[in-house]
C-alpha cells in the first residue's frame, strides 16, 4: 500500500522545494547511497551530501542501512514515504477557516468548500500517517459521481434534497458513544477537457 507523509510546516516545505531536492526525494523511493547518487546525477558528492543531510534533518529521508565500502561506512537512504501531501494551510496567508456547518447560508460558498477540502486533506493525511506507523488501516469511504443540471436553480434544489436525505440516513446509523466520522457532501463544476479552471462559474 502506498505511504504518504504530511508536510505541514512552512519551513519544511520551503526547504524541500528546490528542483534538486524534489529530484532526490523522487529518486530515493528506491534506496541509494550518496556515491551512487553522485554518479547518477553527475555532481560533486560534497554538494549532494549537503542536500541529503538537509532532507534527512527535515525527516523526509531515513537511513536504511550502513554498509562498509573502501574502509568507511556508506549510508544508504530512502524517502520516508511514497508521496508527500502538502497541508493547504501552509500556503494560506489569511482566512481559510471552516464556517459553521449549522449556517445554511454557507452551503453554496466556494470559500467554504475550499476550507472544508483543506481541513479534510490535513486531517486524513495526519490520521493515515499515524495508522501506517501503527501498522493499521485507516477505514474511510468515498462516494463520487457526476451529474448535469439544467439550471442554477436545480443546483440549489438538489443540495436541499441531498441535505434532507443525508440527515435521514445519518439519524438511522448515528450511535452515541460510537467512533465519530465526518461526512462531507460537496459539489463543484466539473472542468471540461482542455478548459481552464476559471472559465466556468
Low-confidence stretches: none
Order of helices and strands: EHHEHHEEEHH
Give the CATH class of the largest domain: Mainly Alpha
Name the average pLDDT.
Answer: 81
- The 3D shape can be described as elongated
Number of helices: 6
What is the CATH homologous superfamily assignment of the largest domain?
Winged helix-like DNA-binding domain superfamily/Winged helix DNA-binding domain
How are the strands ordered across the major sheet? 2-4-3
Instruction: State the end-to-end distance.
Output: 37 Å
Task: Please provide a written account of the structure.
The protein has 201 residues and is of the alpha+beta class. The protein has 2 domains: 4-83, Winged helix-like DNA-binding domain superfamily/Winged helix DNA-binding domain (Arc Repressor Mutant, subunit A), CATH 1.10.10; 87-136 and 146-173, no CATH class. 41% of the residues lie in helices and 13% in strands. It contains 6 helices and 5 strands. It has helices at residues 10-16, 19-27, 34-41, 45-57, 110-133, 152-173; strands at residues 4-7, 32-33, 61-69, 72-79, 83-86. The radius of gyration is 23 Å and the shape is elongated.
